[in-house]
Amino acid sequence: MAKKIFLVILIIACFAGVCYVNTDEYKLEHYEFTDKQVKLLNSLGINETKMVYKYDVKENTIILRPGTYVDEDLIRVKMDKKFAIEEIAIYGLRNKILYKDGEVISKFSPKAESNKAIAEFISTYGAKYNQVTKWTIVDTPPDVYPFGHNGIYNFLSYMGKDDEYEGATLLNIYSVLHYSGRDWIDFNKVIFSNKSNSWTYYVPSRPEHQVVRGGVHEYITVSFFDILHGMRLLADGENPQIDFVGPQYKKTVSLDAADIQKINEYIKLADRL
User: Fold this and answer.
1) Among 91, 148, 201, 207, which residue has the fewest nearby CB atoms (within 10 Å)?
2) What's the predicted TM-score (pTM) here?
3) Side-by-side strand order, sheet with 151-159
4) pLDDT greater than 90 at residue 178
5) Across 107-181, where does the E strand assignment appear?
6) Which region holds residue 186: left if phi is over 0, alpha if psi is between -120 and 50, else beta?
7) How far is residue 151 from each of residues 62, 176, 270, measured CA to CA in Å?
């Protein structure tokens, strides 16, 4: 009798084990990246692909801790049901997307390298701390946008002062999309283009409007990462230009070598943040 009970328990245990092996949880926890996926991760600067921090079965996601980096450097790898990689991003508050739907957007940079990049950027462009708002702005745009300027002002901003960027979670690069002229164009999209390609950014909300002597201003502040694809396109091609496009009118802005040099500085910073 005891032997029969033991056999029944053994069969149930084996059946349960077989069932568990076929679950999504088991498959995810025992998944190993293919050579092609490892190559992709390496190309993004993620060299350690086996240091798993945790799994998220619901999202079919693996959270990596590359090497001995701190928790701010956790990497989120989201896959579909067939384990094809859909998205790779910095995990946590920054949640910076590195790769999505077959497109490389940015590269991974450990926190220590990020801090070094910020320090170098501050040394080059200077920082201004506002004791009322408790924010620091690096490469501060003008307090009053000059009439006749059309283009983009970029700046780095973080909560805190001096070297408090090292622990800042509220840190980002922002871009002011700015048009000025005699008449309104009510721009609702901005087209980034070069001689070979173009990319359209649809403005998420109505830009600020301001009437001044001689004309008007229209401007909106967005995350630099939202327009990073367009910035790369400007930096990589001939005849770079920006078009502020409204329902009826548009303004075309050609960029010179100094503009492109500055854009490249921000792209370099973005890749290291």
Assistant:
1) 148
2) 0.68
3) 127-130, 135-138, 151-159, 171-181, 215-223, 208-212
4) yes
5) 127-130, 135-138, 151-159, 171-181
6) left
7) 40, 8, 19
